[in-house]
Design goal:
The chain is mainly alpha-helical. The protein has helices at residues 2-7, 24-34, 41-98, 101-110. It has 4 helices and no strands.
């Protein structure tokens, strides 16, 4: 029974003391800022890959900007096409109205040109 009591943890024990923090984080930050980290052979060996990744990131950002520019240009051109299509329809309607025979005769009378319409239908010359 004495052995069983020894295995049961006592709640009267004080809390374990906190471990001291490592100071490696400050040292790493200092090495990065000062440039000392670039002297390590493992880091120097990885520099070409890091530069390649940075290059790819710059390409990705440039591609995003280019796509935004093209999207804005596409939207602008699309609205311009709609406007020109509407203008074309209205000009076409005015042209169709102005070329009707009755409209041509009315405009001739307004300008003082006295022409008479032919009563004889046209015939085919062979």
């Amino acid at each position: 029974m004495a052995e069983e009591e020894a295995k049961i943890p006592q709640h009267d024990d004080p809390a374990p003391a906190p471990r001291p923090r490592k100071k490696g984080g400050k040292r790493l930050a200092r090495n990065i800022i000062s440039g000392e980290i670039l002297r390590r052979p493992g880091v120097r060996r990885q520099l070409p890959y890091a530069f390649f990744v940075v290059f790819l990131m710059l390409l990705y950002i440039a591609n995003g900007y280019r796509n935004q520019h093209l999207q804005r240009q596409f939207s602008r051109l699309q609205s311009e096409v709609k406007e020109l299509r509407t203008k074309s329809l209205s000009v076409n309607e005015r042209r169709m109205t102005a070329t009707r025979q009755s409209e041509v005769m009315r405009m001739l009378r307004e300008r003082g040109i006295m022409l008479e319409e032919s009563i004889v239908p046209p015939r085919v010359v062979e």
